[in-house]
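Convert to structure. Protein one:
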Amino acid sequence: MSSDKRATYERASMDTRVGYGAHPALLVVDLQKGFTDPENPLGGDLTAVIERTNRLLEAAHDNDVPVVFTRIITSHETGADYGIWMKKIPRLDTLAAGTKWVEIDDRLDVADTDHILDKRQASGFHGTELSSMLVAWGVDTLVVTGCTTSGCIRASVVDACANGYRTIVPEEAVGDRAIEPHESNLFDMNAKYADVRPVDEVVSYLTEQ
């Protein structure tokens, strides 16, 4: 980052850490086959993200940390339940109920106790049961992994912050279709909405619960 940009952010006191709370949950965003299989026009190779997310899942499962998986899914042939988003990304129509593209990637260690949450918009909070579950569980910290960094990760992170959660993004456990939006959004989320931290650190935090 240039010295001018660094000075601008430092002047605004951005990049302040919120830290970890006492009661976390793990939110795994959209690591469904439609995004993790390059055969789908929306997909890419997220093997590394899946491997690192499995480390977080192991720590969460071993320490009774609640886990929620999200997936984007339409039950309408025209994708009408996506609303205007469908106009922007027409190939969301591939993420249709009953297709393999809405299945959580088989490489992920999904436990019977994990919750699968269906959504129609980028944020895991929009029009879903996520807030109600987190409140019922007494969660104060939300660890957000998955894809894409510039899309559904960012939208979920912004809403998590707005809803009062300490929000943690494990840097190596989120991915995108291109490196430029990935890196710029990690930088911006860390400055404004979340703590972007190394996976090893976040695994240690979950292990301590």
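Protein two, convert as well:
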Amino acid sequence: MPTASSPPEPRRRLGEHGLAWAFLLPSVVVFALFILYPLGRTFYLSAHANDLFGAPSRYVGMKHYTDLLSSADFRHTLVTTALFVLFTVVPGVLGALLLVLLMESRIRGVRLLRSAFALPFAFSVASASVVFSVFYNPASGVLNGLLSNLGLGPVGWLTDSKWALLSVAVSTIWMNLGYNVLVLSAGIGSIPGEITEAARLDGASGLRLARSITVPMLGPSLFFLVVISTVNALQSFGQIHILTRGGPDGSTRTLVYSVYEKAFAYGSSDFGTASAQAVVLMVVVLACTAVQFGVLERKVHYA
């Protein structure tokens, strides 16, 4: 029963709710300005045709989406995007896992190796892409120089459609290697030492210890890396723009780069088609994330 000096309960709750909204208001405003408004604007533009200056001119409904689904170029872009994700996520996560397991061996200088393998994390996409453009240079690049010493002919790493996507994927794997190694190293560090010691006392070591103890205990970290690497691969732009600009012959034109080409590149201002592609990209990201959470997370929990 409230006393005469205490405020009524409804008034107190109203004050608490008002204070909570006052603290939340800055975040809500930022979220609305930078997430909700651009998202709504994207849907609006995708349903409208635009003039030469990119301004919406008339309502066209689902026309941009139907045109995309019937376009062979767009289907090729989707396939290229899927291949790019496959070429970067699987080798990137498995390669980082292999390196971390090797570094867990009791060898000298392991701290130096951890720092060396984490070094790519310090490079920006632009600087790393410039370095790889030097490696891939057809005339004076390091890779073709090695092939020449082996008596092999030069390879057009970025100019041959058979090699361009794989070359960009290799550079992307290297850029993400440092982050992947740091995440998995932290995951191994969180494994209780008594579990590992008990397994060693039972005779487990090397590959058996990694297969039976380390890798299953790293399930949450691996799941996190697969999801994050997939989203990052679907959104990759900088290395593609610097190394190939979507070429040759569209062999490295992913969905993100196609959005850029339609909206901004070469004086284009087809914001309607670009917005429709952006919506498709959002749906692809959400679908991949939902599948990964529905399949991989369940396996992690039941492992």
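The mean pLDDT is 87. Strands lie at 48-50, 56-59.
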